[in-house]
Amino acid sequence: MLFPKPKIPLRKQKQHEPTSPRLPNLEMCSSSPLFLQVGHLFAIFRAIDGASTVQGVMSNRKRFTACLEEVQRARPPHMDTSDKALFHGARSLNSIHRDLCLRKVSMLKRTTVAGGTPGGISTNEVSDDIDDDMATTKARHEVRRVLKIHYTSVLKNWIDRHHSHPFPTKEEKAELCEKAAISERQLNNWFTNYRRRHLH
């Protein structure tokens, strides 16, 4: 080869810091006695993004678990739709928060103790990026699952009360959309699917 191509070093992939998922709006459950405690729990969950040291992450985890215990103690003996949505949401957040803390601590330790080959891409970094993407997707699924439990319960309760004529008026649709925290299009799709499965 007359003119060999110069070797170009591989660019090190940018390491993405684990971030907390987007959380649902709790206002739809403001009537629940768990509302304030779970709101505080969500605030602690969001604060994990600002933790820049291992000690900061551990402190956030301790505050989160202490707040979760308060939620469990405040659990009413007879839970309505809002209570169940908040309680199950808090429990789901616990496992997500634990995984997020572990990944942040791992990342911070790798930053302190230099790892990988200079100018290259380590296998650990690639696998960590994949793990971060998977964990974020899992967190989003958990949040969607909690919201689905809530709006399904709201709509089924309405169906039970109007079983003889399960066709909400325009005003009832607006009220249901507000209670279930969904759009009118989602509401119409849900009723269409329900009638197809149960009324034919």
TrEMBL record:
**Region labeled Disordered — which residues?**
1-24
Q: Which GO terms describe its molecular function?
A: DNA binding
Q: Kindly list the places in or outside the cell where this protein is found, as annotated in its UniProt entry.
A: Nucleus
Q: Is Nucleus a UniProt keyword of this protein?
A: yes
Task: Spell out the GO cellular component terms annotated for this protein, sorted alphabetically and separated by semicolons.
Answer: nucleus
Q: Which UniProt keywords apply?
A: DNA-binding, Homeobox, Nucleus
Q: Which residues form the Homeobox domain?
A: 138-200
Pfam families per record: Homeobox_KN
PROSITE patterns to which the protein is assigned, alphabetical? HOMEOBOX_2 (PS50071)
Family annotation (InterPro entries): HD (IPR001356), Homeodomain-like_sf (IPR009057), KN_HD (IPR008422), TALE_homeobox (IPR050224)
A biological process from GO: regulation of DNA-templated transcription
Q: What is this protein called?
A: Homeobox domain-containing protein
Question: To which species is this protein native?
Answer: Linnemannia elongata AG-77
Origin organism lineage:
Eukaryota, Fungi, Fungi incertae sedis, Mucoromycota, Mortierellomycotina
